[in-house]
Design goal:
single chain, alpha/beta
Length: 278
């Protein structure tokens, strides 16, 4: 990770990453919640942006961190053209723009905008403070929308968590086509970090079948993470009580997610080096 941080510091600009897929329940928000915990422990300056009307990421984070009130909520800050007024500090290294149901008004607010102006709104609003962070992670809803379009177009990278099951598998190509469409129109530098498989049941032959299909179908592109997430009841406990490290299985789950985080950073470094011709 140190080499990647050196590149980021040389550029003086955070790398922006959206976690998204067009299916709920694939673990995209839990992934970011635990990434927040781990990155904070590593003393890496990170901002998380919750564009989901349900504010699931915000609700998850407040179980582990105290979340103060912002001067303005997310939607109000967009109206004022200054998202800094919606940022709150959770720790010296971890900031958040909390999700807000007020964001339901965004489609009406942007109705008179051109499609380009509407879709690049978030990208333009975060630009002034990208120098303040190493990473900016965005959580958004699992459907095409003004929220999702803005998140993707504002990002340098997309990470795609999916369940190793039929419905998730069948949507992969359509989702990648959606990303390519936004890339071609508004964000030519956009890259896919990869697909993070989530096994609901590591003993399930069905889960294993679709995991193998993912590795086989996307072998040439190297899209599928070598590491994957296994379902754990402990995650449900954390969702109620916050992330802890009191038990041996706490550390086991954190280690599993840390391998995903480390692979994420390594994949970003490789993509950055490709862009530089290294």
């Amino acid at each position: 990770m140190d080499k990647l941080l050196d590149l980021i510091h040389d550029d003086n600009s955070a790398r922006v990453i959206t976690s998204n897929y067009f299916k709920g329940g694939v673990g995209k928000t839990k992934l970011l919640t635990i990434f927040a915990y781990l990155l904070n422990k590593k003393n890496i300056r990170t901002l998380f942006i919750d564009t989901d009307l349900q504010a699931t990421l915000t609700k998850d984070l407040e179980k582990t961190f105290e979340i103060p009130s912002a001067r303005f909520n997310f939607y109000e800050a967009i109206q004022k053209g200054n998202l800094k007024q919606a940022i709150v500090n959770l720790t010296p290294n971890l900031d958040l723009i909390s999700g807000s149901f007020e964001m339901m008004k965004l489609p009406k607010y942007t109705r008179s905008f051109s499609f380009e102006k509407e879709t690049t709104l978030l990208k333009n609003l975060i630009e002034p403070f990208k120098r303040d962070y190493d990473f900016i992670f965005i959580d958004t809803i699992p459907t095409p929308s003004v929220y999702t379009n803005n998140s993707i177009v504002a990002s340098d990278y997309v990470i795609i968590p999916i369940q190793a099951e039929e419905e998730s598998y069948n949507n992969v190509e359509n989702y990648i086509s959606y990303l390519i469409d936004l890339q071609e129109q508004f964000n030519p530098a956009l890259d896919i970090i990869g697909i993070v498989p989530y096994l609901m049941d590591s003993q399930s032959t069905t889960n294993r079948f679709y995991l193998d299909k993912l590795y086989s179908d996307f072998k040439e592109e190297d899209f599928i993470f070598k590491n994957y997430i296994k379902r754990s009841n402990r995650i449900g406990t954390w969702a109620r009580n916050g992330i802890t490290e009191n038990k041996s299985y706490d550390k086991k789950i954190l280690t599993m997610y840390n391998t995903i985080l480390e692979e994420t950073m390594q994949r970003i470094l490789e993509l950055e080096n490709e862009k530089r011709g290294v």
